[in-house]
Design the sequence.
């Protein structure tokens, strides 16, 4: 019987991957199921109650304005930061396609922010933007010729630009790196042929460059979009979600609920909502790529 | 004053010798002779020799006490090792609760913020200590703790759950040289019609601050206060009550923080920023402390270490080498903040974790640290953040001779320990405080004070409903009935 099974190629392949699949399910699926169960319960750190309460947490999700505001904020932040990082990353990559002195050293320096932990990046920018010790306001004051008092992490109108600056500073190099690799592999002969045929810059970009870099660009955008949707560390270190809840992203809200307000079950429901939203987004994005192929 | 590390090392060495000799002598002296609480703790703890106690401390300077002083000394005396686990102060409650709920028994002794004591005790995370206090005759020495800490930061529903161990209180520090300057005095009196002196009301504070800023800006500003929401919430709690505010209606448990008094306090707090140093809205403990030591501000309100470090106490201690050189060493004056009822902001009490496998050993370590003789040494450690909390600490001739006006400093701390206001303490207090912190950050961002406070009151009401109005009403009534809840 075993010999027959092993002789069957298809069965043999499944048997080989079975242990790995089992461990992945154990590690990945168990917490997920636990999370779903917790989201139907009434668990709080403050008491021992573990009773089931049906869909109450999910009902609460629907009427929780603070949650929906945090989702809208997160989406808006993603919608603004992602294109900026993409465009700047692309322009940098194009620049580095040319022959420039100390190219390797410059690329290493440009990549430094991406290597830094977001917590450190956030703390650094918070200091940079500090009124008393930070150089940013001093430089602006010097340029303006008068003392400028800009409370970047306090003022409601400045706090998002401050976070955006830090975010773009840290993650544009990531876009640059992937797009630089992709652009380096664009077929030179096609580009030269287009040039000889008198194709415009836009036509060359649209018909030759974009299709060639699209798979890599798609992955870069997907990774950054997912990261931006889950953004926590950078914002937390700069503003802790403030002033008030003005910079409270979805991840910060989920953290507040779980570890400041100790509503374990409700934060499990939020986490499940996040999983659903991200799954829908990723599946839709992958399907779109498949269609475009 | 300890002016260098050698003197400090000598101090630790001497203390160890004295205590070691005392411990040895204890074995020889007849049992008939009365033992101090510290000595009893040491004797009893020897049976646990070889055990390691996990102790939760606020990260930063606080753990240097058990790491450098009490921990090694305790191990030498009893054979019990102390393992210090550090946590940021805002995560200590979470860590203690998580440890309790998971049943992991990761901590033996906890540093508990007193206004979180009801939550921890009522959830079962803390061990009642009455039996241990009886067994090891600690009642008498507990009476030596200043009443405001002893009566408010020790018991929940009549049972002892923690030993008050830190005299945190926010007091006013001011530049005596600027206040005593004859030109300033005459100019101020001429303008405002009363003598220039440490402010007794918030209006005086504002007028004096504006006067100093006008006179010395940009070298020195009138004041710089702790404006980061985590710190500023304590200042609001104090000021709101000084002005006559009440947090809740005791009958309905509706939040009344959005009363006219609340709006007045919020409005005044924001208005004061205009004559404080630019960017004061971002200031926390360190920023205000640095500015005061540098001579950039004439007044500040902060925790007790500011007062002693500004006077130069602890200068040359390795652990304090990050502190900038004080430029105001002989110019620091001490006073109660406007209103005369300072906030007893934060503070720490020592509690035994109910999940500990070494409860008695943990209690004995707490009793020993908290005792008259050991605590007096601890509050004098140059780097320590433990502030005087026993009557004997305030009266200590040794402490009062540490710097030129240390006596004045201790007198003000003692007054604060009599009139100080308790931090608001409810079930799930941190959630109420979090809403208040968010409200303060909105205040600095320029939003309308009334709108912010209305939203805060609504948030508090929703929280109360979620926790249970009747349950919370009982806890609030208990808190509000304490003499130091409201002035």
Sequence:
């Amino acid at each position: 019987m075993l010999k027959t099974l092993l002789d069957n190629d298809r069965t043999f392949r499944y048997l080989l991957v079975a242990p790995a699949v089992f461990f992945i399910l154990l590690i990945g699926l168990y917490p997920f199921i636990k999370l779903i169960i917790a989201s139907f319960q009434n668990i709080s750190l403050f008491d021992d109650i573990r009773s089931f309460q049906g869909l109450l947490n999910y009902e609460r999700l629907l009427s929780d304005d603070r949650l929906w505001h945090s989702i809208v904020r997160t989406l808006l932040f993603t919608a603004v930061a992602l294109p900026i990082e993409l465009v700047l990353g692309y322009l940098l990559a194009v620049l580095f396609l040319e022959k420039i002195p100390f190219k390797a050293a410059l690329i290493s320096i440009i990549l430094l922010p991406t290597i830094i932990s977001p917590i450190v990046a956030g703390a650094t920018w918070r200091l940079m933007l500090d009124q008393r010790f930070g150089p940013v306001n001093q430089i602006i004051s010097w340029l303006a010729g008068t003392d400028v008092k800009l409370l970047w992490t306090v003022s409601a109108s400045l706090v998002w630009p401050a976070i955006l600056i830090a975010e773009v500073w840290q993650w544009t190099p990531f876009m640059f790196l992937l797009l630089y690799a992709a652009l380096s592999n664009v077929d030179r002969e096609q580009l030269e042929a287009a040039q000889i045929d008198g194709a415009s810059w836009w036509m060359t970009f649209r018909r030759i460059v974009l299709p060639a870099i699209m798979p890599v660009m798609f992955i870069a955008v997907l990774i950054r979009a997912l990261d931006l949707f889950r953004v926590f560390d950078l914002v937390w270190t700069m503003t802790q979600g403030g002033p008030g809840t003005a910079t409270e992203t979805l991840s910060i809200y989920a953290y507040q609920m779980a570890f400041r307000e100790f509503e374990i079950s409700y934060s499990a429901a939020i986490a499940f909502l996040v999983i659903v939203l991200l799954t829908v987004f990723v599946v839709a994005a992958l399907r779109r790529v498949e269609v475009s192929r | 004053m300890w002016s260098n590390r050698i003197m400090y090392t000598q101090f630790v060495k001497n203390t160890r010798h004295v205590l070691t000799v005392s411990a040895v002598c204890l074995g020889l002296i007849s049992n008939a002779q009365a033992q101090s609480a510290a000595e009893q703790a040491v004797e009893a703890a020897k049976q646990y020799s070889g055990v390691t106690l996990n102790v939760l401390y606020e990260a930063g300077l606080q753990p240097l006490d058990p790491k450098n002083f009490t921990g090694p000394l305790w191990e030498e005396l009893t054979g019990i090792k102390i393992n210090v686990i550090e946590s940021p102060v805002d995560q200590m409650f979470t860590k203690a609760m998580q440890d309790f709920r998971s049943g992991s028994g990761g901590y033996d002794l906890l540093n508990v913020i007193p206004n979180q004591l009801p939550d921890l005790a009522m959830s079962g995370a803390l061990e009642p200590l009455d039996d241990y206090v009886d067994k090891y005759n600690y009642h008498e020495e507990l009476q030596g703790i200043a009443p405001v800490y002893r009566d408010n930061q020790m018991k929940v529903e009549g049972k002892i759950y923690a030993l008050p161990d830190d005299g945190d209180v926010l007091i006013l520090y001011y530049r005596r040289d600027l206040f005593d300057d004859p030109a300033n005095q005459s100019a101020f009196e001429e303008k405002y019609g009363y003598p220039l002196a440490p402010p007794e009301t918030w209006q005086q504070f504002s007028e004096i601050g504006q006067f100093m800023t006008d006179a010395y800006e940009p070298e020195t500003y009138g004041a710089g206060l702790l404006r980061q929401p985590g710190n500023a919430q304590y200042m609001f709690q104090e000021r709101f009550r000084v002005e006559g505010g009440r947090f809740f209606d005791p009958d309905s448990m509706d939040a009344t923080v959005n009363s006219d008094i609340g709006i007045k306090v919020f409005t005044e707090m924001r208005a004061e920023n205009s004559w404080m140093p630019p960017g004061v809205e971002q200031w926390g403990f360190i920023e205000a402390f640095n500015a005061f030591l540098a001579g950039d501000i004439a007044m500040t309100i902060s925790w007790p270490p500011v007062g002693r470090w500004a006077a130069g106490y602890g200068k040359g201690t390795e652990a304090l080498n990050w502190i900038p050189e004080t430029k105001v060493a002989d110019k620091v004056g001490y006073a109660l903040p406007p209103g005369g009822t300072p906030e007893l902001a934060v503070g720490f009490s020592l509690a035994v974790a109910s999940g500990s496998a070494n409860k008695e050993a943990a209690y004995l370590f707490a009793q020993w640290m908290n005792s008259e003789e050991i605590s007096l040494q601890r509050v004098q450690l140059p780097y320590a953040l433990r502030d005087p909390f026993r009557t004997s600490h305030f009266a200590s001739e040794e402490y009062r001779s540490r710097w030129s006006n240390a006596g004045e400093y201790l007198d003000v701390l003692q007054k604060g320990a009599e009139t100080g206001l308790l931090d608001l303490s409810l079930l799930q207090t941190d959630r109420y405080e979090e809403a208040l912190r968010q409200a303060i950050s909105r205040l600095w961002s320029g939003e309308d004070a009334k709108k912010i406070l209305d939203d805060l009151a609504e948030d508090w009401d929703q929280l109360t409903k979620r926790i249970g109005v009747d349950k919370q009403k009982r806890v609030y009534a208990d808190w509000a009935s304490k003499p130091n809840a409201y002035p």
